[in-house]
Write a structure and sequence with these properties.
alpha/beta; ten-stranded mixed β-sheet; 9 helices; elongated
Amino acid sequence: MKKIIVLIDFSEQSENALKVAVSIAKKHDSEILALHMLELNSALISSEAGMHPEQTVFFLKLAEKRFKDFLNKDYVADSTITPIIKHFKVFSEVNEVAKKHNADMIIMGSHGTDGLKEIFIGSNAEKVVRNAEIPVLVIKKEHINFKIDRFVFASDFEVDKLPAFKKAKDFAAMLRAKLDLVYINIPGDNFLSTSDAYEKINLFLQEGNIGAEVTIYNDYSVEKGILNYSEASGADIIGIPTHGRKGLSHFFMGSIGEDIVNHADMPVVTFKM
């Protein structure tokens, strides 16, 4: 965990994300890349549209000052933080920054059930997740000392989820957390008998050469199952696989993945398949 990107909009939620990044960075001697995305458009920076480049410089200088004030906190002392400012709110650029700097993880703040605040309104969190090729950690609350003991990873245990599982396993090892695997069994066409479910899970474990136990948890929906199981098991964080640019994985059809991010009280981390 050498480089961590934190998305900064100067809100309380992004400061919560920064505190988690600092906590992880201090334990792993990591560099933090603090990324802010300005809400500028082409008209503003184009002199042909009647605007002046001086205005762009003004907004950049203002962002730089806000960065300096935002990072002037006692808890960031002795941390290596590099501010990065992008002109537009183009969320695919987050992944471009990650690739350019060979980052290991993206951390972002969330407003929880009220929706994602400011730069993370609506589907913007999903856009970050879809474009990201590295894990995305979504933080809901303030964590003075970010410590994870129990990490629930939910999957449908199709073989194509193996890459995401291996990333989750590495993530758990990095945090020195216990990895708790769960399969959510729901009524309807996707319901499996216990024997069929274990047959599917065992095929996954054998294919990945994995020695682990998996809990089968019954509920009325995947989202409720993940949230209820995580709460009942005393989890500190929830992990889910995603398809990246192809959208959320088949296991998390529709808005389930985004609902997990918005409705879970605990942190959520996504892993691209």
